[in-house]
Amino acid sequence: MNNKITPIIFILFICLFFVASVLKEPDEISVSERRKLASFPEITFASVSDGAAMDNFDKYISDQFPLREGFRKLNAFFQYDIFMQKDIGGLYFAEDHISKLEYPFNTDSVQNIIDKTNHIYQTYFENAGNNVYFTIIPDKNYYIAAKNGYPSIDYKLLESTVTEGLKIQYIPIFDQLAAEDYYYTDSHWRQEKISKVYQTLANAMHVQPSGTYTINTYGPFSGVFASQSAATTQKDTLYYLTNDVIDNCSVYNFETNAYTGIYDFEKAEEDYDKYSLFLSGPAALLTIESPYADSDKELIIFRDSYGSALAPYFTQNYRKITVVDTRYIASDYIGEFIDINDQDVLFAYSTGLINNSYSLK
Amino acid sequence: MVFSSLVFLYYFLPIVIVLYFIMPRPLKNIVLLISSLVFYFYGEQWLVWIMVISTITDYLCGLIIEKYRKSKKISIAALIVSLVVNLGLLGYFKYSNFFVENINALLGANIPLLNVSLPIGISFYTFQTMSYTIDVYRGNVAAQKNFLSFATFVTMFPQLVAGPIVRYATIEHELNHRKHTMQNLSYGVCRFVVGLAKKVLIANVLGDFGNIFSSVTDKSILFYWVYAISYTLQVYFDFSAYSDMAIGLGKMFGFSFPENFNYPFISKSISEFWRRWHISMGTWFRDYVYIPLGGNRVSAKRWIFNIFVVWFLTGFWHGAAWNFIIWGLYFFLFLVVEKLLIGKYLKKAPSFFQHVYVLFFILISFVIFSGNAKEVLPAMFSVGKIPFINDVTVYYLKSYFIVFLIAVVGSTPLIKTLYGKIERSKAVRWTEPVVVLLLLIFSTAYLVEGSFNPFLYFRF
After folding, report:
1. Is the peptide bond before B24 cis (omega within 30 degrees of 0)?
2. What is the mean pLDDT of residues B444-455?
3. Does the pLDDT value for residue B151 go beyond 70?
């Protein structure tokens, strides 16, 4: 190792990147990762004394490193193509999809969601005589993981555990979907592809599935998995459905105290996650008023993010739909916002949430 | 601060290198001292005072021992002060909670745990400074009169937090008379970048596999074995990488630190393994504990006791937990058995058998070391109770196959031997900088992505 070139290149390289790091204007956001980047830390005596300033400086350097995006891609190339790792941090590619391993089976989490759902049912609906249903929304790993050699949870076990644990009528929809019903770069399903799911649920809930829709294009959509993995620049196109019933709906958000339509174009424009187009994205409690619904019935949907694309279908059948996400509101407070009478009730949770349910309140 | 971080690689190191090489020779130690204190303060903040206390104590004790060499009482008192201060700091910050927990468990007491955090590298720098005062007391080295030089030795950031344990005698001359050559700089850069790549691209990825192992619920027997192998390789690559980086940085600044690893997995006996693994610690215990106890020039019983003490302390040095003590005593048993019973038969056994013997028992030792022995050891041998292999095992074996392969090959001298054969060729002249640059770039890419980056030997 007696080579003058090596130390010269090494020292030039680290000095060059030092200078570039210092001179580089910090970026506020990473578009590809859909997140805010760390800013230069506040330097105070207290923050230096307890090490917070150093921790934050480490994050700042990592986030603002020159050519960061290129290095991320290089790292993905190294791990996928040189080390030939089949997934990085659970992210894998199969059948044109990028997905994240849903593995292993989390027994405690499944029991947690059973307990929480039973608690809601017993608190609000058991004695009120409501028609209560639940369905399990499969994540796309159900359709692509095992057959491509990737580990996945035992979906049959998950389904049987939940159905045995809940005292509510179960509506199975696993066989109403396929891999192509999900976005390639995202975890979510495609609204225009789930009409069969809606029909299955509606029939089981004794309402007439109805409605014809226009399929609209919102624009390019880089899903959550594409943003987590630097290995792809693949993009989807985001679609949404409209018709007269949907167009005349109004959505009230209890947190913002504001009304929007079913599709929140303003939110989608400003949000990193374009899936926020549907019902303004994450929200604790919403009501959808549907003046042209074919009945005066009301529906309460307990849901996760998959419910945002599903709920608009039911505007055909229900005059008022209350959409609750108990990841953002404690179930014990629901009674303060909803008058429980004879609403139909649908619990619709994805397998991803069921297997990782500790965010439920 | 750790070497495998962006702040070290692209802020700290370029500033220190530039300052160091533009400063005139008399100021170079000041650059090293200040940068070392900044390096330590960045990670440990005010715990830097513990290191400063240790430094001042040993500096003064060294001077007193030398000045009053003829007065046995004073010099031995100074030596005792040095040992008490260093072992006291180590005992308080590293072991006090361990003792409190065990007293509580044994006596059913409820003594509250002390609110102390372990200063990084305390096990290394206290051993280094103790070796200094002991060597001065023994007359092996002269006391360092210049506080700046002594403080530079103790705090020197390249070897501060994870060794090798550099004795004062090793770099005494270099503290004030070291040479800076392009040859040293070149070797140092290569060694540092190879260490960085070993840490970031191999050890961290193996650590990632360890995390997966912890999360997987349906494990097979093979999965447990692969985990044991992976963890053993991770410890080796993690620790030897840190030593490589330390030795490389030392060379850049003109110091020759001792080698700490010499391909331990090719050993043919456990005794040989310990001559190749963490060499600087092994020789420290040999010179400052084993030999003063009488070494092997004593009765068999006394020799066994001496070995017991050394390996109890070796285990305990690695961490304040019972698994480390058991790990040390496990080696005590093997070394005694090899010496008294099977050593001569082992030497005559086929080479293949010797390697299998060492690798098997070393593997078991690192399962103990990992702290997962209760779960992993029985499962490794639970034939018929859990499947030998399953789909999950096959998946992760395939996914990590390349890194396992590189780690296994990299833990043997094969690459070094091949490199030795072509080192002087013209092609190497041009490929070496390219390889070094690529390793640096790939390591940087891994760090920029903010991937898994622990340091196993960090708290020892």
Report:
1. no
2. 76
3. yes
Cα B460 to Cα B316: distance, rounded to the nearest angstrom: 10
- Residue A134: phi and psi, rounded to 5, are -140, 150
Query: Which candidate, B9, B315, B284, B254, places its Cα nearest to that of B129?
Result: B284
DSSP B387-410: -S--HHHHHHHHHTHHHHHHHHHH
Contact A318, A69 (CB under 8 A): no
Residue A20 structure tokens: 């570039």
How high is the mean pLDDT of chain A?
93
Count of positions (residues) in chain B: 460
Instruction: Select from B186, B212, B419 the residue whose CB has the most chain A CBs within 10 Å, as the one to mutate to test that interface.
Output: B186
Taking each helix axis from N to C end, the angle separating B147-155 and B48-67, rounded to the nearest 10 degrees, works out to 130
What is the rounded average pLDDT of the residues B49-53? 91
Identify all chain B residues contacting A7, using CB atoms and an 8 Å cutoff.
Answer: 182, 185-186, 188-189, 252
- Domain regions of chain B by residue span: 6-178, 184-448
| Segments making up each domain of chain A, as ranges | 1-66, 97-355
Cβ–Cβ under 8 Å, residues B265 and B411: yes
| Mean pLDDT, rounded, for B101-110 | 91
Write the DSSP symbol of residue A262.
S
Select the residue of B9, B402, B430 nearest A14 (Cβ to Cβ): B9
- Per-residue pLDDT tens over the stretch A152-180: 999 999 999 999 999 899 999 999 999 99
Helix, coil or strand: residue A347? strand
Q: Nearest CA to B390 among B224, B181, B191?
A: B224
* pLDDT on residue A18: 96
- Predicted pLDDT at B354: 96
Task: Look at residue B332 and tell me whether its pLDDT is greater than 80.
Answer: yes
| CA-based nearest residue in chain A for residue B400 | A85
CA distance A185 to chain B (A): 20
Q: What is the ipTM of this complex?
A: 0.90
How far apart CA B333 and CA B307 sit, in angstroms, is 9
